[in-house]
Amino acid sequence: MDDEPTPVVLTATCHSQGCPSAEVPIQAAFYPNANDPIFRAECAGCEQAVTDLVPFTSLPNPAA
Ligand SMILES: [Zn+2]
What we know:
Blueprint: E1 8-13, E2 26-30, E3 52-55
Antiparallel strand pairs: 1-2, 1-3
Residues 14, 16, 19, 21-22, 43, 45-46, 48 line the site of zinc ion.
């Protein structure tokens, strides 16, 4: 099988009240789903669905 979807690195941020991981952006690789929601994430801290998913773009690294 060579038609596997390409994983996309997204930054997920949980905004749940009282969540230990709230407001902590986490980068992870996601595989797009065939149906909506295309990307699904579940917070490891509160187990709620994380809807704040944005594409991760590499930070500029002037030292490189
Ligand atoms: Zn959370």
